Each structure stands twice: as C-alpha cells, then as structure tokens.
Amino acid sequence: MADDASTYDPSKYERPSVTVDVVIFTLYNRELHVLLVKRGHWPYEGYWAIPGGFVNMDEALEQAARRELEEETGVRDVYLEQLFTFGDPGRDPRTRVISVAYIALVRFDAQKLRVSDESTDVRWFPVRELPPALAFDHEKILEFAISRLRSKLEYTTLAFQLLPEYFSILELKHTYEQILGEKLDKGNFYRKIKEADVLEETTFMREGRGRPTRLWRFKPNRSDKQFVFRWREDRVESKSG
Amino acid sequence: MADDASTYDPSKYERPSVTVDVVIFTLYNRELHVLLVKRGHWPYEGYWAIPGGFVNMDEALEQAARRELEEETGVRDVYLEQLFTFGDPGRDPRTRVISVAYIALVRFDAQKLRVSDESTDVRWFPVRELPPALAFDHEKILEFAISRLRSKLEYTTLAFQLLPEYFSILELKHTYEQILGEKLDKGNFYRKIKEADVLEETTFMREGRGRPTRLWRFKPNRSDKQFVFRWREDRVESKSG
DNA sequence: TATAATTAGTGTGTAATAGACACTAAATAG
DNA sequence: CTATTTAGTGTCTATTACACACTAATTATA
Q: Rounded to a whole number, what is the distance in angstroms from the first to the last CA of chain B?
C-alpha cells in the first residue's frame, strides 16, 4: 500500500465504503443455481441482487464473506474464493462503494439451507434462467463468477464441493456437464476420474430396476485441499483483469 | 454489495481506507525486475515497499493504479491486471487499509523510466535478489504476483509486454525462461511460436560475427489483445483464493 | 425364467501434442 | 577458408485426448 510522499495521515482522506458480495452456487434439482436476494428499497428496489454487506472495521475480508454467507444461508465451512474487486465510481448511487466479490460453493441441503422455495425475497435461480436485470453491476459480477467457475473446474476438484458426501460417478459427470455446459464421454470420464485417484468406494444405492449404483466419496485426506488433477487440457479462461 | 436489511445509510458506517498497490515488472539486463520504493517514515521506515497510494473518491480502481504507475515510472498505456485484494485488519498499524493489488508489465526504457540506477528510494530489484524483508504484507503480495505472472505466461502473450517493439526469437525465448525459471528447447520454441502466428518479420540486426539476428514484432492487430496461444499444457497456478 | 433396464465399466484406434535431441542452413568477421 | 553465430528443420518416442464400440453386473417385472 501506501505512500512515499513525506507527510500524510490516512484519516484525512475521504473513504469509500467497502462491501463483500458473495456469489453462492449450489446444485439443486441437478442444475446449477445461484442465490439472489430481492431488494426492498432504493436503490434498485424490487431488483434481484447478489447477497452481500459491509465489511466491519475489525474483520478480515474472507471473514466478512463467511459471515454474509452464514447470515444468508445458515451454512459454514464451505468453499470460498475471492473473485475480483469491483469499484467503479457510480456503481452505487448512494456513495462510493468498493465491492470485493467472492464465490461460494455449497451443498444443497433443504434442511440446512434455510432458503425456502416460496420465499419472495431470497431465492435460488438456475443459472440458465436468471432474472432479466440485476441490481447494480451484479450481472457483470455473476457472469465473471460463472466464467471463473468453469475455468477452475478444468483443473481442480471444485465440483466435489457441490455434491453430497456420497455420490455416483454419473452424478459427478452430470455436475461437470452442468457447469461446463457440454456433454462428456462416459467411458473417458470413468477412466479419468479413476486414474486421478481422488475417489473412495463406499456403499451401493438400490432403487428401481437396473444394477445398483455404486456410491463414492472424495478421499478424506484430500477433501479440504484444492487438489489439482486437471480434467482436460484445452480451454482457457477468457476474461482477465 | 448491499444490504437487504430494511434500513441503513452507508455513510453511517466507519470506513476503511482503500489503496491500490502496483507490482511493476520489467525486463532489465535480461533479468526480471520489480520496482520497489523505500519508505521514509513510520510505519516500516527504511523498508522497501510495493508502490501504491490511496484511491480518490471519483476514480476507478484501475484508473488509480494507472495514476500510481505513471507517478512512479512516468509510463502509461502498459499492461495492467488486477491481482488480488488484501484486507486483513492490522496489516497497516495506522488504520484499516484494504489494498487492491495490480500487476503491471512495462518495457524497460532508461529514457522513459525515470528511475535511476543510483536512486536510494526507488529501485528496480531482480526478483531473485529481493530485499530480505518488505514493508507491510508486501512479501505475500509480491510472491502472489510472481506466481500469477508465471501461470499466465503459459497461455497468454504476456511476455511481449516486457520486450521492446523489435526483438529476436531467442530474446523472446530468454524472456520465457526468465519468468518460468527453467530452460526451454530452442527448436521446439521456434516451431511453437511460428505456428502460433503472432509474429511479424521486420529487419535484421548485425553485430559481431555470425549470421545476423532477425528481428520480429508482435503482430499489430494483436498487440493490445490478450491473445491466447497457450505455450505449454502442463502446470497450474498453485495458489487460489 | 426370460427380458428390459440400468449402472459400471473396458478396449481400441486415430490424431494431436510434448519433449528430447540431432542435424542442416545462412551469414558474417577475421 | 574457418570459426562463430543465428536460424531454423527432421524425427523419434511417449503421452494424451477423443470418439465410439463393446462387455459385464444386477435388478424388477412380465
């Protein structure tokens, strides 16, 4: 940070507000969803917005993001990553607001996620059916978040953060397909994920006819790491700072 | 950003200071260097720091970064990219400071870059010979910047931003080697860069004995774009948010 | 008990790529 | 003419991606 001019006192400067916005993704009904809140007053009254709030003076940025996340969804200990900082003057008509955006990935669990389906002011939206307009510059933020999510999926185990503890390989493949927006080859997917050696066999799930579904889980010693296994080699995140 | 609680006025909140810090890289004496400034007063008096300063209230973040960059080096119109936002409480003992860090790549040009070799308070440091300790959390920022630089080099034409307009392919290869910290194969490099079709032949440079050096330049229509050609397929940036 | 349905894989061929390394070609100074 | 320097090209091997066909296992139910 900071100066090299010889005199100054930071307290003399006029200061912008700093907020954190958290783009919360989940997998729900086999589709990628994002949590939005409806604004109840000016500015952008009635518009949907990415949840967020002000950073307290004694609070780290990531801590503020976790607090917002928990206030909004009731969940803790989820995957959280800083996305980008948006700070154009005029993006909030009230005052200068600089917003540090985060991405969170949560496992969908109706019990825990206190967001109800009928709630009129907090709702999960499928990323393919977003409201036509969002508050502030939140469309840009959301677009950037989705792009980042896609590109990181290629070389990390991010997808596991969206699945329940036990899942089948076809479910995992479906999750990849949802985020990437394209079909993957079943045989190649099986091979690739097995070779990566990140899965651990658990039990079976029996339902309907057909061979029972084998359930797996992410190897415990790796479950919290950002283990890198690079699913595919091509593609590159398009946006950059 | 923003609340969904029903009443509030952002102006009521206590606000942190917001600064931009710019990690400025250049290639100088065939080595990757970074610009640091020596602090003249408390806190961290006498320590080297990444140049930066406060964001004005009516100024976009990137604009503030460009202003700082120009104040420090006199150059404009260079490659600039947002790196990460550092905001731990206590990182500046004076007050809460949230720092949006940027990376800048500038072409070394003794004429333009007004930083002299003997200057005691503004200096280029080779990234392999940094001062033992930096002010604030600037070691972390710098480490992150170098890591990002390496990883982006792999799939972008970033390296061109460090070279003069006209350069030989061996110089370009040397630049890659400097940043990646490893040797590359000459033949493969030639092939790869030619196939990418981003270079344009210009003149020759004759000096000493030996076949004259062919000089190239980056194709004009692509010089300002972040054209992607992915130099190698392996490797992944380790750090993530 | 036969069969349809479903998950769970394996086999294989092609084309592209990376990476190592040897080799040729061109131009110059002395 | 020769040493030196840049500028490439040739080629072999191992790996990878990708497409797509194929087999195997297990179950409900007709």
A: 19
Which value does ipTM take for this structure? 0.87
- Per CB-CB distance under 8 Å, the chain A contacts of B80 are 241
CATH 3.90.79.10-classified regions of chain A: 15-153
Q: Do B99 and A10 touch (CB under 8 A)?
A: no
Tell me, which fold does domain B158-222 have in CATH?
Arc Repressor Mutant, subunit A (1.10.10)
pTM metric for this prediction: 0.88
Inspect the interface and report whether the beta carbons of A21 and B1 lie closer than 8 Å: yes
Q: How far is the CA of A170 from the C1' of C5 (A)?
A: 16
Q: How far is B206 from chain A (nearest CA, A)?
A: 39
Q: Which CATH class is domain B14-153?
A: alpha beta
Of B78, B32, B25, give the one whose Cα is nearest residue B175. B32
pLDDT digits (tens, 9 = 90+) for A218-236: 887 654 433 444 444 333 3
Q: Quick one: which residue's CA is nearest to C7's C1'?
A: A211
Task: Look at A18 and B98 and tell me if their CB atoms are within 8 Å.
Answer: yes
Q: Nearest-CA neighbor of A106 among A74, A63, A145?
A: A74
B21-41: pLDDT as tens digits: 999 999 988 899 999 999 999
